[in-house]
Input
Amino acid sequence: MTSLKLTEDSSKRYAAFLKSQEFNEGLPDSKSSYWQHHASLVSADLKKATVLVRGRSGIYITPSLRPGASIKFVFTRNGLLGRLQRVPRAILVAIGRRLLRWFPIHIGGPVFLSYPQAFDAVMQNKEIAGAIRSPYRIDHSALALVDGVFSDTHSLSEHYRGWVGLSPSWNIIIQYYLYNILRGNAEPEKLSTILEIGGGNGNFASLCLHDLPYTRVILVDLPEMLSVSIPFLANLFPTARLGLPNEFRENGWNDDFDIAFLTPGQISLIPDDTVDVSVNISSFQEMTHPQIAAYFRLIQRVTHNSGLFLCMNRVEKIPAGPDSQNTVYDDPPNRFADYPWVSTNELLVYEVCRLIRLVQLDDVMIRLERVCKSVIDPD
Output
């Protein structure tokens, strides 16, 4: 459970959203089996100007610290001890992983790096990160020299503590890595509008909003997830101009926002050619095939010619429900290579994510494209 504070105005508007028809949007086939389950686990309870949020998939909020928290509290709440207290059965797993990092003995499986170790290995172009030169691979040596890119976990951690006041979690490290890739391929002053589809609680959006002061963000997600991302981002950016889903229904499309929140049923509201960068991080992999196709059409429509499309998802995933070990799922797997890519777009990056490859078994792909609308896609 995480507690998020809102201003009086944001609290009233958020309460109106929770009572709106947009929050209760019931589009047929809008959720895969995976999200039918995980959406049911999301809760957001508004009490006066405080929102208490709970959930699992997509909700990776670094725990907040109470004012005057002691060093002991900080250590136990955010460190290993805190995690062990919350999930006791993780004790042996956590200790075993740390021992294996120091004593790389093969005991029934591969040895992985921690997220900070993997970030440093990749950004410093170490041999373990698979530094093979290719026009479709990221040149991390060159990337680390770009102004605004975070070249190591020390600079990353100092930056995150500077504006959030906490140590970065594993998920935050991933967002910084993707931000590095975006920053290395785009001039920040040209990133005025970013569209993120399925952004969870809003970690990537928050980093862009903080470090790209002239950028606004459009978040498209399930209503249940918006019930988390709205208070999360409103808490981090209390002076930001928000556009909530029910307000777009009432007033139509309005460009006067810093952060716009839309449900899947509202994506037709986004005007053509108004987005500089479209982003999807680890959520296409959990959708149905028709949903993925619809979002690819949206990206090609709203991203302007020469804009960017950044995508990171599993090589393959079946978006199954909680009983995946005992239930046969007839739906075909979501395979990154089979997404409905637009053949006329210019390919800038296409590789197995070297950061994720060092920390887990399932491979994840990264693809960065420059949208090209000068030729009609024959597919």
